[in-house]
Protein: CoA ester lyase
Organism: Amycolatopsis cynarae
Amino acid sequence: MRSPKDFFAPLAVGAPDPVREIPALPSRMIHFFDPSNEKMAAKVPDLAKKVDVLLGNLEDAVRADRKEAARNGLVSITKSTDFGATQLWTRINSLDSPWVLDDLITLVTEIGDKLDVIMVPKVEGAQDIHYVDRLLAQLEARAGLRRPLLVHAILETASGVANVEEIAGASPRMQGISLGPADLAASRRMKTTRVGGGHPGYLVRTDPVGDDLETGRTTYQQDLWHYTVARMVDACAMHGILPYYGPFGDIRDVVACEDQFRNAFLLGCVGTWTLHPVQIDIARKVFSPDPKDVAWARRVIAAMGDGTGAVMIDGKMQDDASVKQCRVVAELADALAARDPELAKAYDEATKEALA
Ligand SMILES: CC(C)(COP(=O)(O)OP(=O)(O)OC[C@H]1O[C@@H](n2cnc3c(N)ncnc32)[C@H](O)[C@@H]1OP(=O)(O)O)[C@@H](O)C(=O)NCCC(=O)NCCSC(=O)C[C@H](O)C(=O)O
Ligand SMILES: [Mg+2]
């Protein structure tokens, strides 16, 4: 562990100074594409206008014999595309793979000035982040980069979950963490073969009436990912970084996808991965606060003056703590409205109505 005194010192001579605060940029959807897939690559310029984050994926879902094509494809797409305000991320191959060293050397050298965040899969503990941290500093120095690259960890091993707090605080580069439910399920030896989402077998049942154990007993499906997401959210909040849900693999089931995304949003996640174009609008809808909630939050903030004391609004008590909750919603709405004029209009109209 670095001493708190040198936590913000660059890890290589000539590397840029680490950031002191992680920017809370809109990142409702991290849209995955395979840069070696020509059809997907052709859609990148249009997708850049629709999504908050575009991620060129080099790891799982890219065939082993296409790894170099994906890496080179990402370099060439990046050089020829204007991403505007949309962030560009990449997911490198895992740290024990034969590809990761060339991924980092090539990407930082060729497109380090355009990349925002590097997603690192299968992170087991702080040692993995420390390795990437030092290597990135050396590569940034050699490439003459002025802005440090940020790092995002995927929580997809049992050790990663056990060590999530130390991972979140391992480096000033840590931007956030995502849940990786498929690898995590395998690592934990869970018995689900689904990529994220619920499972009908994971349930609780109401008590029997009398001796009849069979009839009239309602079952409620539970969320397999609740514990992990909640733990990830706490670790991220504690270290001032951002938590994300990960993949929802049943592309056809847009209804359950929306539910899973909303659970994550309500628990504190700022965004999710989108694997197919059909998931983009779902993520936008879910991870943008509802105009009615924004109007309410703004109303409470306005009524609370300096934010202390207690007032009654529509029969509900508001105090110092509830105004803080409202500020979370209102500040997120302001940040999203600055990027999305349609949303800005919806928020302002709903607020006017609520204050009338
Ligand atoms: C899931 C897919 C393989 C489905 O692809 P396809 O069968 O081609 O779907 P469609 O025919 O419905 O596609 C319609 C058109 O849309 C294009 N398309 C599809 N997906 C994308 C995309 N992500 N970005 C841009 N464009 C996309 C198709 O090319 C079609 O185009 P056209 O023919 O011109 O109309 C595919 O969606 C896919 O591969 N998605 C990404 C998968 C991925 O990235 N997986 C890795 C992340 S999940 C993971 O790694 C697990 C995690 O780590 C964990 O452990 O939990
Ligand atoms: Mg994975």
